Amino acid sequence: MHPPRANRSYRNIARVLRPVLYAITRRDWRGAEHLPAGTGFIAAGNHMTNVDPVTFAHYLYDNGVAPKILAKSSLFGVPVLGWVLRTSGQIPVYRNTSKAGDSLRAAEAALAAGECVAVFPEGTLTRDPDLWPMVAKTGVARLALTSRVPVVPIAQWGAQDLLGRYKKLFKPIPPKKVTVVAGPPVDLSDLYDRPLDAATLREATGRVMAAITALLADVRGGTPPAQPYDMRRPGGASTDLT
N or C: which end of the chain has fewer CB atoms below 10 A? Predict the structure, then answer.
């Protein structure tokens, strides 16, 4: 079965990719009851490796959701991959250009139409040495507070065993266990009527990332750093959870 919102191209791509993913992964999908039905929502996840957007989308697709993933615009120019992204309706992110606002508007339109928009708030692969989520950009907060749709935190672990961070060697054999778990939507309702300033955006972003990190800690059975890695600080040290 395919999600009802998956277009023909999305379905055809899934027909090719899903059998491959079934062959190379052992899936532990949890928390699907937290995925909203009948409304647009944001799926916010951690980002460890270049392959985890695929496993992230696989989880959502298997649970009846065809996500619109926010992906950097340069990927849309890559042969084959660009065609896949364009025809399946993914959303390009134009960083540091005059078109930067187009991404937010496209995501807002998708959410208003009842779609799931998938976001990796960190904006790039985590720099944390142990692959814990790092301090995120505030784009997810801006999108959440302007659209006022549910934000579902999703943590995944295991995709890095298929393809390590910054590695080129893909390791599909033997099949790798990939765990993906969704949690309850993050409560941001008390922030809706506050000014959309830096403090509000940091607060909302911090809540989303804290929820993702807590889910990941449960999956890994470990303890995350007291403060998340922050690329803005020397050595990544952080004094601010947001």
Answer: N
Q: Which two tokens stand for residue 189?
A: 């309702």
Determine the longest span between alpha carbons in the chain, in angstroms: 51
By the 10 Å C-beta count (0-12 exposed, 13-18 middle, 19+ buried), 61 is classed as buried
- Give the global pTM: 0.94
In one-letter notation, the amino acid at residue 142 is: R
Alpha-carbon distance 88 to 102, whole Å? 18
DSSP 185: P
Quick: pLDDT tens for 36-50.
999 999 999 999 999
Confidence of residue 83 (pLDDT cuts 50, 70, 90): very high
> What pLDDT is stored for residue 155 in this prediction?
98
Give the 3-state secondary structure percentages of the chain, helix then strand then coil, rounded to 5. Answer: 40, 15, 45
Sheet holding 41-45, edge to edge: 25-30, 176-182, 151-157, 41-45, 116-119, 68-72, 91-93
Distance CA 174, CA 50 (A): 19
Q: In sequence order, what are the residues at sequence separation of 6 or more whose Cβ sits closer than 8 angstroms to the Cβ of residue 153?
A: 44, 45, 182, 183, 186, 208, 211, 212, 215
CA dihedral of residues 169, 174, 179, 180 (deg, nearest 10)? 60
